């Protein structure tokens, strides 16, 4: 039986470099990424409509986010030749498969985040008095 105070070297069993979950969190942990995915959850949408749906996102940040999501295989970009060209975005099948876990996280947030805020306030009260 290993004691918690053992001097025996233990190999890490959690790794940032090989953990698939960590790699997915890198994709969706950006606040803009999650919001852009939510903006596309109802189907095909144009750039300007995405921008109007997301409060505070700049053109530069929206463009960067869409390019990264396209690179990751989560978003499809279609261009229809016209003057000016019509550019539409939609979630790929892979992107759509991400909606369910993101909705579950959103539901958890709606149900529990007030407790997180209360815990932070309690922690700050206790630790700021020291």
Automatic annotation (TrEMBL):
UniProt keyword Transcription regulation, yes or no: yes
GO MF term set: DNA binding
Highest taxon, organism lineage: Bacteria
Pfam families xrefs: HxlR
Keyword terms of this UniProt record: DNA-binding, Transcription, Transcription regulation
InterPro entries: HTH_HxlR, WH-like_DNA-bd_sf, WH_DNA-bd_sf
HTH hxlR-type domain boundaries: 19-117
Gene3D superfamilies attached to this UniProt entry: Winged helix-like DNA-binding domain superfamily/Winged helix DNA-binding domain (1.10.10.10)
Residues making up the signal peptide according to the UniProt record: none
Descriptive protein name: Transcriptional regulator
Species annotation: Paenibacillus rhizophilus
Origin organism lineage: Bacteria, Bacillati, Bacillota, Bacilli, Bacillales
